[in-house]
Amino acid sequence: MSGEVLLRVEDLRVYFYTYAGVVKAVDGIDLEVYRGESFALVGETGCGKSTVARAVLRLIPPPGRIVSGRVFFEGRDLLSLPEKELRAIRGADIAYICQDPSSALDPLYTCGYQISETIVSHQGVVKWRDAWMYALKLLKQVAIPEAEKRIKNYPHELSGGMKQRVVISMSIANRPKLLIADEPTTALDVTIQAQIMDLIMELKKLYNTTLLLITHNLGLVAEYCDRVAVMYLGKIVEVADVYTLFEKPLHPYTQGLLKAIPNPLKRVERLYSIPGMIPSPVNLPPGCRFRPRCQFAKDICAREEPPMIEVEPNHYVACWMYAKR
User: Fold this and answer.
1) Quick one: CA dihedral 78, 81, 86, 92, positive or negative?
2) d(CA 184, CA 187)
3) Which three-class secondary structure state does DSSP give residue 246?
4) Do residues 271 and 260 make contact, with C-beta atoms less than 8 angstroms apart?
């Protein structure tokens, strides 16, 4: 890591206006991603991780709306840029790997055509033959067997792992400065998951790319990431480097997540689970959002939202237990 901030998100709020009410999917988060690092955003399903990634690229579908906030990439506010300038950044300087490769690929075009289209759009390559040959090189780089044959295949002719490799080759085609991987291993079996993550890290090192990994798999975080931010119900509750977070988690929610990971070296009768249920995002509890499930909750937790404070150097937590100190 260089210590230079590549991506800075300030007070980002993304709301979805539904018939049931306003869903505050992302409600005032701040984070910084340094150039060259692997940064993880973790949390339960539905906490707003993917919404943050889409908001960075202004890809929030209706009825969602970016209500407020600023997203700085190399000093430029992406939320205030004209659409034409933002399109030049999407796919070139910032690449996005979706959760589901099947929905990311167009079933009407071959894989080679879709990769070539990305190259032509952003690199100004005039000859499609040159783009096609570069696409073939990329498929070989992501270790697709028989790349000469697969480049002519349609997405439905490939397995889930191969489709994810095609999406990765599209993402790295323009050597992006920031690669956002939104749960890239969710639909894959365990063996393929490890191959895909190893491939992403090799390409990150090869192209000197910064990685923003969105996941709920703490095993991937421990193995591949430098720093991590923990999200709960639209809020970031803790930020630290990976070693500190696993050795000394401070927020009760983070502690619960780590306790819920089975230890293969210990025999237990019952696996741990965080008590209670996630509150409705339409009817959020006042004060701390984790309070209804927290064993350490006090009166102040029901009245006021805890501020994000730096308990130790580069270790931040939003909890009244530490704010009082």
Assistant:
1) negative
2) 8
3) helix
4) yes
pLDDT, tens digit, 9 for 90 and up, residues 3-43: 789 999 999 999 999 998 999 999 999 999 999 999 999 98
* Residue 281 and residue 25 in contact, taking contact as beta carbons nearer than 8 Å: yes
Residue that the structure tokens 């004060």 belong to: 287
CA 170 – CA 117 distance, rounded (Å):
9
Q: What amino acid occupies position 221? A: V
Written in H, E and C, the secondary structure of 255-300 is HHHHHCCCCCCCCCCCCCCCCCCCCCCCCCCCCCCCHHHCCCCCHH
Return the structure tokens found at 32. Answer: 């910084």
Nearest to 42 by CA among 193, 185, 238, 210: 238
Each residue's pLDDT tens digit, 115-166 = 988 888 877 666 888 888 989 998 988 888 889 999 999 999 998 888 888 9
Sign of the CA dihedral with 89 first, then 236, 211, and 158 last? negative
What's the distance, CA 51 to chain centroid? 9
Where are the domains positioned within the chain? Answer: 5-93+176-323
pTM: 0.91
Residues 6+ apart with CB under 8 A from 288: 294, 297, 301, 302, 305, 306, 318, 319, 320
Closest listed residue to residue 273, CA positions, set 46, 44, 80, 103:
44
Indicate left, alpha or beta for 233 from its phi (over 0: left) and psi (-120 to 50: alpha): left
**Has residue 1 got a pLDDT over 60?**
no
Q: Which amino acid is located at 105 in the chain?
A: L
| Residues 5-93+176-323, CATH architecture | 3-Layer(aba) Sandwich (3.40)
Task: Give the Cα separation of 253 and 232 in Å (integer).
Answer: 8
- Strands, DSSP E only, in 143-234? 178-182, 210-215, 227-232
